[in-house]
């Protein structure tokens, strides 16, 4: 049975929250609890049947990701990009083909899927994670601790670290109340992935490679705005994965699937129809990621507001997570950076 008190309570079992716990462990702090609303861990890292429906890529300069993977002894591999890529700028015109510069750095993916990193972090601290537990209220107690009220019981902590997206955290009641300036920033901070629809399709063979296609398809017009080769590191499973045009959110799942397959068939060939599995993930339907009013953002939003650097509730509450990071906010690297910083800050407070 999970205990109800801890020195540190972390709200959210995504990459940032798990990283915070991992670093606290390495610094000798083991009195930790992680409370997670979902019935699974990982947050916006979600790998199903080999398809990464959330965080997927990182680059050489994302040193926090690279360092953590090295520390966890998890491999990485280059995103496949050999051959012709397709640019669709007008669905009525012929496709434009281009090839990537073989000398330019390619993005990396995580061997075993992005969830491999989550599973490794969680294996070290699995007994401290309580899923299906939604935080409703955080309030100061008489003994200078914080009471965390959830739909699955109450918990007590000396310090609480909130790692869920700031906009989702506005659903939590705080006593004493947070400064209005902070609440305003939280409300306006865009949640990464909150408006995204992803599709993943697996095949028996990588037919696109046989035709000298990279599997990359780019274009703001058409059913799919981005598509990439998503085969695994061992090249035992062959897939295509990408982002669906948000204009298809309001059509039925059956109609959306038909339009997506028609679009890909047009540019990659009839073999697209010989798929093994077809999957979708609309993050706007995920209450733990999105909200009733979503806003599509196609430029990088501003993350890492300085107000997230401070402690609140008399030095006992700290905000963390990908959207709070001043470096690579919204990326896995930002989530890891914020997790490391949060651990260091609560210990030194």
Query: What is the arithmetic mean of pLDDT?
Result: 94
Helix content: 10-25%
End-to-end separation: 30 Å
Q: Tally the structural domains.
A: 2
CATH 2nd-level architecture of the largest domain: 3-Layer(bba) Sandwich
At CATH level 3, the topology of the largest domain is: FAD/NAD(P)-binding domain
Structural notes for this entry:
This protein is of the alpha/beta class and 349 residues long. It folds into 2 domains: 5-46 and 116-190 and 299-348, FAD/NAD(P)-binding domain, CATH 3.50.50; 76-110 and 195-285, Polyamine Oxidase, Chain A, domain 2 (Alpha-Beta Complex). Helix content is 24%, strand content 27%. It has 8 helices and 20 strands. The strands form 4 sheets. Strands 1, 2, 9, 10, 11, 12, 13, 19 and 20 form a 9-stranded mixed beta sheet that branches. It is elongated and about 70 Å long.
Topology:
Elements: E1 5-11, H1 15-26, E2 32-35, E3 47-48, E4 51-52, H2 63-72, E5 76-78, E6 84-87, E7 96-99, E8 108-110, H3 115-125, E9 129-130, E10 135-140, E11 146-150, E12 153-162, H4 166-169, E13 173-175, H5 180-188, E14 197-203, H6 207-210, E15 213-218, E16 224-229, E17 238-244, H7 253-268, E18 275-282, E19 311-312, E20 317-319, H8 332-348
Parallel strand pairs: 1-2, 1-12, 2-9, 6-15, 10-13, 12-20
Antiparallel strand pairs: 3-4, 5-8, 6-7, 10-11, 11-12, 14-17, 14-18, 15-16, 16-17, 19-20
Helix pairs in contact: 1-3, 1-8, 2-8
């Amino acid at each position: 049975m999970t205990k109800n008190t801890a020195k540190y309570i972390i709200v959210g079992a995504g990459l940032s929250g798990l990283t915070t716990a991992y670093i606290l462990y390495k610094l000798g702090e083991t009195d930790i609890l992680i409370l997670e609303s979902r019935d699974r861990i990982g947050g916006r890292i979600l790998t199903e049947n080999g398809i990464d429906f959330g965080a997927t890529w990182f680059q050489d300069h994302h040193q926090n990701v690279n360092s953590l993977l090295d520390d966890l002894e998890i491999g990485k591999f280059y995103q496949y990009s050999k051959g012709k890529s397709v640019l669709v700028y007008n669905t009525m015109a012929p496709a434009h083909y281009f090839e990537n510069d073989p000398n330019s750095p390619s993005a990396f993916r995580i061997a075993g899927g992005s969830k491999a990193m989550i599973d490794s972090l969680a294996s070290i601290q699995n007994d401290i994670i309580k899923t299906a537990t939604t935080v409703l209220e955080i309030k100061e107690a008489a003994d200078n601790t914080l009471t965390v009220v959830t739909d699955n019981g109450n918990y007590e902590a000396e310090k609480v670290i909130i790692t869920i997206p700031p906009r989702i955290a506005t659903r939590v009641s705080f006593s004493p109340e947070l400064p209005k300036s902070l609440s305003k920033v939280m409300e306006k901070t865009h949640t990464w992935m909150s408006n995204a629809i992803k599709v993943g399709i697996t095949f028996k063979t990588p037919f696109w490679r046989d035709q000298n296609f990279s599997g990359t398809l780019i274009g703001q017009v058409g059913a799919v705005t981005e598509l990439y080769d998503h085969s695994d590191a061992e090249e035992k499973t062959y897939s295509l994965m990408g982002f669906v045009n948000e204009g298809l959110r309001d059509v039925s799942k059956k109609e959306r699937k038909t339009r997506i397959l028609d679009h890909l068939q047009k540019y990659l060939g009839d073999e697209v129809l010989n798929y093994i599995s077809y999957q979708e993930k609309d993050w706007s339907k995920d209450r733990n990621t999105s909200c009733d009013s979503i806003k599509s953002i196609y430029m990088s939003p501003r993350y890492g507001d300085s107000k997230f650097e401070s402690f609140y509730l008399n030095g006992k509450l700290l905000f963390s997570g990908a959207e709070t990071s001043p470096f690579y906010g919204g990326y896995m690297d930002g989530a890891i950076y914020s997790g490391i910083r949060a651990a260091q800050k609560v210990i030194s407070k």
